[in-house]
Design goal:
The structure holds two protein chains of two kinds. Chain A is α+β, with helices and mostly antiparallel strands. Chain A is built from 18 helices and 28 strands. Chain A folds into four domains: 150 residues, Aldehyde oxidase/xanthine dehydrogenase, molybdopterin binding domain (Aldehyde Oxidoreductase, domain 4), CATH 3.30.365; 201 residues, Alpha-Beta Complex (Aldehyde Oxidoreductase, domain 3); 159 residues, Aldehyde oxidase/xanthine dehydrogenase, molybdopterin binding domain (Aldehyde Oxidoreductase, domain 4, 2-Layer Sandwich); 203 residues, Aldehyde Oxidoreductase, domain 4 (2-Layer Sandwich), CATH 3.30.365.10. In chain A, β16 and β17 form a beta hairpin. Chain B has two domains: 74 residues, Ubiquitin-like (UB roll), CATH 3.10.20; 70 residues, [2Fe-2S]-binding domain (DNA polymerase, domain 1, Orthogonal Bundle), CATH 1.10.150. Classes of the chains: A alpha+beta, B alpha+beta. The complex binds FE2/S2 (inorganic) cluster (2 copies).
Chain lengths: 760, 159
């Protein structure tokens, strides 16, 4: 008898890969139904204006065009609801599925065309004439507010968070450090654009929507409500998903429109977004301006942080409502002791694409702010950046550490962490002293090179609950039915590894079902790096329960005690190796329909992974191009189910963080016309720009909040990239505090290089 | 613009008789008219490379070519890479080196890399990096794609 194979903790190959490599994936655009109509959205070409009329007669006259809808056709559909952080005062700013009286950004859906053919639908959409009276656009989220409508201004709410006596701390301070910082507008931009295909099955009275992602159950409930159905007669179905990153899978106008149209016309309705639409219509993110100050003592210990910021949310409050600015405010303190803290976050609307979350939402921004502040404090006190961080880090003995702040309906308590240890390990991996010496030498020889460090605390494992059902099929295969979604992160493999260990089977014999609302009634979905933690533990619990049941049933048939049995490689054997064994398939056939178990994991607190990034850069003084020569990441995830999957999450996050730090920006002209509408103007990193990196995944601080000690890994690659590159660029320029705005595009960097420090 | 031309596309050695408008892109024809949905569309303006297929031995962006231009040419798509159950060395290398996450960009990268390596088996690492930087991936950070392609290149050379 061989020892049971253990899968958790090993970098086993992914179960997901084979169909994807063979071209047998089923992405949204791959879903088609006979007789389907294609939907094309007519979008506003004006950033802000009064919608006076729409003339669709020419479009309707085109052969193959079936219908054109404007707001009056969907007037009964309420605005898109809030999924998270939905403050009451934000409700008047929700988006309707088609514009009613005003248009508020270029790209806003104003009408939809339904046609027999995609090309015809596009031709027809071009023929729909919009009569829009232009109004002055609001494009600056930090300046004066403007009108949203007759009764509402463009500042829907102000977020306030804090604790301690900030005023007293500033009065008592040895010195005060003040900075004005901004992060640019960029977003997840998955390689697959959005898509939604709705079909009404009259015989069963079921409306189904394909192309779901991220939060299919919540979306099922709310789309159903919006169009007058119930969760019982509506299904959302997830196929392969070409990247999520926070932006895909929220309810957008187009999802509701295809569903409403499938019902109204009793035809399958297919909508596939094109790239230009994606860049102006899917959620943007990240744009914030922070005015921050820190009170410090003579050694550079933080006494208080006071931060006022402006969050540019674009034209409407979408499903995330106040989530991003709320997280910015709540997570800003990071890994440091901050005795007193105040954040005032102005949520502002502008005439640009509405915003939502993007990988490490609110943290990419606030880590940039906090770490810029640490570098500024270091410069003020005259010590190096590593030393100033060490002085302020929360100690291991202080865990669990209550931050006295709340976000996403949870109280923030850092569950575990040894921040100083990870800093040491990461610097050691980077060869920090040698790197410093080398850079110094190169700078002396005229090269513009430098290095930086940034630290951060991430959050993951948002509850409140996940339920999983595990079942042995009659062929002995195991099915794990989850309430989460897959966005390409490897959820099938990770869940299979956990179930395999708990059950005693091979992970390749396990099918993991996700994103199907007709398979399990409840599911929280995939966001906030919650899947591995929440669904992982629920999978373990259900698998353990099923294993007990299997042994009990097998013991009856094998006429022995459950304790005398074990499951090894999918076979039920006697622990003393005597007598016959039984396969799971045999047991399933002997007790049909009985071999399943369900369990739920509840959690009211998030778990907090943490990390350190180190970067070394070289600036081309002529072109302003930045070459990242060295990149080292330390990240503690408590327990890695599959280290290679964790590493690849980190690597992908880094690439996105790098894009936002150096290249990617949704730029608008003075009229609110978006200038980044193709991949030629919205520049994402290629294989040339993303550096080789060293990733150290540690397990020094398992979470005490779940038995496996898991923490999520989805966002730690992206979180501090803007911060660390800014730090490294300061060092290369030998000008502390030079970088205050992201992205640091080549043009901006050239300007910095050419401007003498005194005149900045 | 609704006049359709009858033509035959030869994809992975199989003929597909279709009728399309002159303006129909090769990508759409492969996917919609010939039902080979392994070829993906990520931008339709020639930058992301998700739609890369091999036409007469050369990787091309099928969103930038009209279907009528591909008549009589040998088109290869991701569906034609594996030999029955056996993955092409490039596919196997992507699996071994974890060169994919969501898999949306993968067919384009596979066809790009296979197309280039078949023409230039001895391409040096730096030129290969240049080639790979012509396609976009949003999930992996590229390092594993580069490793996979280099490993497959070794293997393809060995054959
Ligand atoms: S779809 Fe052809 S290059 Fe992007
Ligand atoms: S694997 Fe998702 S885009 Fe490349």
């Amino acid at each position: 008898m061989t020892a049971p194979t253990k899968f958790v903790g090993r970098s086993v190959a992914r179960l997901e890969d084979r169909p994807l490599l063979l071209g047998k994936g089923r992405f949204a655009a791959d879903v088609s139904f006979p007789g389907q109509w294609h939907m094309r959205v007519v979008r506003s070409t004006v950033a802000h204006g009064k919608l006076r009329g729409i003339d669709a007669s020419a479009a309707l006259a085109l052969p193959g065009v079936h219908a054109v809808w404007t707001h009056k056709d969907v007037a009964h559909i309420p605005p898109i609801p809030f999924r998270l952080t939905g403050l009451k005062e934000l409700e008047p700013y929700r988006q309707t599925v088609l514009a009613k009286d005003y248009v508020r950004y270029v790209g806003e859906p104003v009408a939809v065309v339904f046609a027999a053919d995609q090309y015809v639908a596009e031709d027809a959409a071009d023929l729909v004439e919009l009569d829009i009276e232009p109004l002055a656009p609001v494009l600056d989220a930090c300046g004066d507010t403007g009108p949203f409508d007759d009764t509402h201004a463009t500042e829907p709410s102000v977020i306030r968070k804090g604790y301690g006596d900030v005023e007293a701390a500033f009065k008592a301070a040895h010195a005060v450090v003040t900075l004005a910082l901004s992060t640019g507008r960029h977003s997840g931009v998955p390689m697959e654009t959005r898509g939604a295909i709705a079909r009404y099955d009259e015989a069963r009275d079921i409306l189904e929507m394909h192309g779901a992602a991220k939060v299919p159950w919540w979306n099922r409930d709310h789309i159903a409500r919006m169009i007058g159905r119930t969760r019982a007669n509506m299904h959302l179905l997830e196929g392969h998903v070409g990247g999520g990153f926070g932006i895909r899978g929220e309810i957008y106008p187009e999802d509701v429109l295809v569903c409403a149209a499938a019902l109204a016309f009793n035809k399958p309705i297919k909508w596939i977004e094109d790239r230009r639409e994606h860049l102006i219509a899917a959620n943007h993110s990240r744009q914030q301006q922070h005015n921050v100050r820190a009170a410090i003592d003579a050694e550079g210990h933080i006494l208080a942080i006071d931060n006022e910021f402006f969050h540019d949310n674009g034209a409407y409050m979408r499903t995330h409502a106040a989530t991003v600015p709320d997280l910015s405010a709540a997570m800003l303190p990071g890994p440091y002791r901050v005795p007193a803290y105040r954040a005032v976050g102005h949520i502002r609307l502008t005439n640009k694409t509405p915003c939502g979350t993007y990988r490490a939402p609110g943290r990419y921004e606030s880590t940039f702010v906090r770490e810029r502040l640490m570098d500024a404090i270091a410069a003020k006190v005259g010590v190096d950046g590593v030393e100033i961080r060490r002085r302020n880090l929360i100690g291991k003995s202080e865990m669990p550490y209550d931050l006295h702040l709340e976000t996403l309906g949870t109280h923030i308590v850092y569950d575990s962490g040894d921040y100083a240890l990870l800093l040491d390990k990461t610097l050691a991996l980077a060869g920090w002293p040698a790197l410093q010496a080398d850079l110094k030498k190169r700078r002396a020889a005229g090269e513009m090179v430098g290095a930086g460090v940034a630290m951060f605390v991430e959050k993951s494992g948002l509850g409140p609950s996940d339920t999983v059902r595990v079942e042995i099929k009659s062929d002995g295969k195991v099915e794990v039915v989850t309430g989460v979604a897959s966005i390409g992160q490897g959820v099938e493999t990770a869940m299979a590894q956990i179930a395999a260990d708990a059950l005693g089977v091979d992970y390749t014999s396990i099918d993991v079902v996700h994103g199907q609302t007709d398979r399990i009634d409840q599911g929280a979905g995939a966001f906030a790096s919650r899947v591995t933690v929440m669904c992982g533990e629920a999978t373990r619990l259900a698998s353990v329960k099923l294993r007990d049941k299997l042994l009990r049933l097998a013991a009856e048939l094998m006429q022995t005690e459950p304790a005398a049995l074990d499951i090894i490689n999918g076979e039920i054997v006697r622990r003393d190796s005597t007598g016959p064994s039984m396969t799971l398939a045999e047991l399933a056939q002997a007790r049909p329909g009985e071999l399943s178990a369900e369990d739920t994991f509840l959690s009211s607190h998030m778990v907090y992974p943490y990390g350190v990034h180190v970067a070394a850069v070289k600036v081309d003084t002529d072109t302003g191009a930045v070459a990242v020569e060295r990149y080292v990441i330390g990240y503690d995830v408590g327990k890695a189910v599959n280290p290679r999957l964790v590493e690849s999450q980190i690597a992908g996050g880094l690439a996105q963080g790098l894009g936002g730090a150096l290249l990617e920006e949704f730029v608008y002209d003075d009229n609110g016309e978006p200038l980044a509408v193709t991949f030629a103007d919205y520049l994402m990193p290629t294989a040339r720009e993303v550096p080789a990196m060293s990733i150290l995944v540690t397990e020094d601080a398992p979470s005490p909040l779940n038995p496996m000690g898991l923490k999520g890994a989805g966002e730690g690659g992206a979180n501090p990239v803007g911060a660390v590159l800014a730090s490294a660029l300061d060092d290369a320029l030998q000008r502390p505090g030079a970088i205050v705005d992201l992205p640091v595009t080549p043009q901006r960097l050239v300007r910095l290089v050419k401007t003498p420090p005194a005149s900045i | 613009m609704t006049d359709k031309t009858a033509l035959t596309l030869t994809i992975n050695g199989r003929d597909h008789a279709i009728a399309v408008e002159a303006r129909r892109t090769l990508a759409d024809a492969i996917r919609e008219d010939c039902g080979q949905t392994g070829t993906h569309i990520g931008c339709e303006h020639g930058i992301c490379g998700a739609c890369t297929v091999i036409v007469n031995g050369e990787p091309v962006r099928s969103c930038l070519m009209f279907a009528v231009q591909a008549e009589g040419k040998k088109i290869r798509t991701v569906e034609g890479l594996a030999d029955g159950e056996t993955l092409h060395p490039m596919q196997q290398a992507f699996m071994d080196h974890h060169g994919l996450q969501c898999g949306f960009c993968t067919p384009g990268f596979l066809m790009l890399a296979v197309g280039v390596l078949e023409r230039e088996p001895d391409i040096n690492d730096d030129d290969l990096l240049d080639v790979l930087s012509s396609n976009l991936c949003r999930c992996t950070g590229y390092q594993n794609i580069i490793k996979a392609v280099r490993a497959a290149a070794e293997q393809m050379r060995g054959k």
